[in-house]
Amino acid sequence: MKHYFLTLIALLPLLHFSQPNTDVFLFDLNTEKGGFELSNMKNISDNIGYDNQPSFMDNNTILFAGTRNGQTDIVKYTINYDSKIWINHTEEGSEYSPLKIPNQSAVSAIRLDKDGKQALYKYNLRNGESEVLVDDIIIGYHVWFNDNILVSAVLEDGGLSLFSTNFKEQKNYNLQDNIGRSLHKIPNSDLVSYISKENDSLWEIKSVNPVSGITKSITVTLPESEDMCWLPNGTILIGKDDVLYKYNPKTDVSWIEVASLKEYGITNITRLVVNSDTTKLALVDEIDKK
Fold first, then answer.
1. Do 72 and 66 touch, CB atoms closer than 8 A?
2. Distance CA 100, CA 90 (A)
3. In terms of Cα–Cα distance, which of 63, 59, 82, 64 is closest to 16?
4. Which has the higher per-residue pLDDT, 282 or 10?
5. 3-state secondary structure at position 3
6. Is the pLDDT of residue 23 over 70?
7. pLDDT confidence of 17, banded at 50, 70, 90?
8. Quick one: which of 52, 56, 111, 215 has the fewest CB in 10 Å?
């Protein structure tokens, strides 16, 4: 019963029937000469239900969780061809937070089965076949540090804790309690960023070395904002309501507004991600579909 209860706590923000409809939007991004210009918005999910958690598989391909026939499966969207394919179909349950596994033709995703079991699975991109990667801890969100080490937000005592999993050692290490859902590899470093919620009134973006476990503070977030991403040049991008802000730890002293998406009808920016050549931005917004 405890296992099932904790699963529901973590997935309640994810399940499409407990949230307003969400869609994934794609923009062209121009950062030449230090600017930040968005254009050519496209709704790439355009679907009733929960469509969320985009990640770039490469500069031209986006993975996201999409609703189909009452459950959530993994979608692969190819930008150049404006085409979508479903890379899996799991009758037992739904998938969330798909990510390309480094150096493999495979994707990892959180599977929530209909019986309440939650585990991290691997999906073969060639045939859609799946296998369990981690099921001894209940992972809610994850990021690959390399092809041997995974950093994740794990359900514990009604909240999320920061863990690293070493597949060679077959061990899980608890690094910190009370964190947020946003986990990212920091460009040009051996670090991963996460949101520390140790102080309820002042959330911090911190870095962690998944091998040593050493953590350092980077900056505070905007109030109650935890969805962010890194640009390849080391700048953090975060959204609040309809506005995007940036912060570069090396050059900025505070968050700087870079774009308002109000003209596009975007009102509540959540998940966001930029491709490796900084030409595309994908983000999620809650929308009202009749």
1. yes
2. 18
3. 64
4. 282
5. helix
6. yes
7. very low
8. 215
Handedness of CA 61, 58, 123, 104 (dihedral sign): positive
Residue type, 155: L
Taking only the tens place, the pLDDT of each residue in 150-169 is 999 999 988 999 999 999 99
Which CA distances in Å does 273 have to 89, 110, 163, 183? 25, 19, 22, 11
> Please, are residues 84 and 114 in contact by the beta-carbon 8 Å criterion?
no
Cβ partners under 8 Å of residue 187, min gap 6 = 230, 231, 232, 233, 234
Six token digits for residue 25 = 């939007």
* 285 membership: H or E segment, kind and range: strand 280-286
Supply 90's token pair. 């799991």
Which residue has 């794990």 as its token pair? 154
For residue 28, count CB atoms less than 10 angstroms from its CB and return exposed for 0-12, middle for 13-18, buried for 19 or more: middle
Q: Does position 6 have pLDDT exceeding 60, yes or no?
A: no
At 260, the amino acid letter reads S
> End-to-end distance of the chain based on CA atoms, in angstroms?
36
In which band, very low, low, confident or very high, does the pLDDT at 4 lie, cut at 50, 70 and 90? Answer: very low
